[in-house]
Amino acid sequence: MSPVIKEHARARLVTDARDLPVVPVELRYDTATATAPDTIQVAFPGGAQWAVPRDLLERGLRAPVAHDSLRIWPCGRAQLVVERHTADGVEVVQFDCAPLIRFLRRTHSRAATEARPEAAPA
Known about the structure:
Elements (H helix, E strand, L loop, with lengths): L3 E10 L8 E9 L8 E5 L5 E5 H7 L4 E3 L2 E6 L3 E8 L2 E8 H19 L7
Antiparallel strand pairs: 1-2, 1-8, 2-3, 3-4, 5-6, 6-7, 7-8
């Protein structure tokens, strides 16, 4: 079984525009990544990627949280805002919670499956 879990979602880029542009993103969780096994990769069109700690994303669904350059908070009942600070400025995106929750559940299911010891042959 592949250690990679992927889910396609949409993000709204928060800008000064009246209508927030929607872009497709890929959420990716790779259990084989030794450097950051509990990190979600968010891949944007054009190759940009954000690394977000899974637990930070989960806590951000319930209450405002911050870690390093990331700030995450719920926006109403159905959206989540992720703000990333870099030397170039601030990037802000808004996600619908449903695909994120579905994706996070899949990551936990995979982690639980991989943590179970193999049955010993009789």
